[in-house]
Amino acid sequence: MQNFRRVFAGCFFLLLVLYTCGMTSTLFGYDLSILTKVQLVPALLAGSFIVVCSVFVFTFLFGRWYCSFLCPLGIFQDILGRLKKGTSLKDSRSRTITRYCVLLLCVTSLFFGATFILLLVDPWSIFSRVATTFMLPPLTFFNNLIFELLHHFGLYGVAAKEYNFAGISVLFTAILSLLLLFYLLFFKGGRSWCNTICPVGTIFSLVGIKPVVRIRISRARCVHCGRCETECKAGVIDMKSGLIHSGDCVACFNCLPVCKDNAISYGFSKEEMLR
Ligand code: SF4
Ligand code: SF4
After folding, report:
1. Are the C-beta atoms of residues 173 and 213 closer than 8 Å to each other?
2. Which residues contact 126 (CB under 8 A, 6 or more apart)?
3. Atom of ligand 1 nearest to the CA of 71
4. Within a 10 A sphere around the Cβ of 275, how many other Cβ atoms?
5. What does the pLDDT look like over 110-142, one tens digit per residue?
6. How far is CA 193 from CA 123, 188, 214, 254, in A?
């Protein structure tokens, strides 16, 4: 499952980057705008209740797959996280207060018709700003390089692109978001952003507080070696208290292969499990 997640998320992220940077709008004739339609906040603001309800029902049943398979900012953190492995901040009072304050701020501003606070912390908006600010110029360069090469051999399959640079406000907010993301990723570890700042993650942690199908640890088989706890990028497993904070699990499945005693599973179980 971990490998399937990595391949799926990698391809999804690559296509999203190419689409967002205007490098491709279709693939084999399929309209790639579908990739953006499953993003929660844009779907919510556009009133796509089918998408919103489907994501919520799926999260309630199977957990936060969205965070490891469909969220570009989540996948981006996983890619950067390979530079520095580490588990996330554990559940704590200050983390809980911060995440609910951010959510409350977003909801209150939305209630008064202002979307800018939500868009500042919405994962899709952050990803689009980062992509158009930092990924578009090098991609345009490579596109034009390929254009020149093909042109040299009399081939015209790729069109040259003009350089487009993001405006100053987009640049500023993209840099701010990246600084905060890097700080949380490299100094607090793992998916600290997801379980401290992201309003979508906070909503998911409530909807999927105990998903029907989830990560479970067998009491009988667990030898308390702590490998899964160290591997968990979301800081969900707490061996000392014997608790799994399922609402914060981002369904990355990294913990499954590290258990040599087959104590961890993803699914239903009638065995006695850690809570
Ligand atoms: S918590 Fe937010 S930023 Fe993190 S993966 Fe989920 S939706 Fe994306
Ligand atoms: S409990 Fe397992 S699947 Fe969930 S976030 Fe931690 S490592 Fe990933």
Report:
1. no
2. 73, 174, 177, 181
3. 8
4. 13
5. 888 888 889 889 999 999 999 999 888 888 898
6. 10, 9, 22, 18
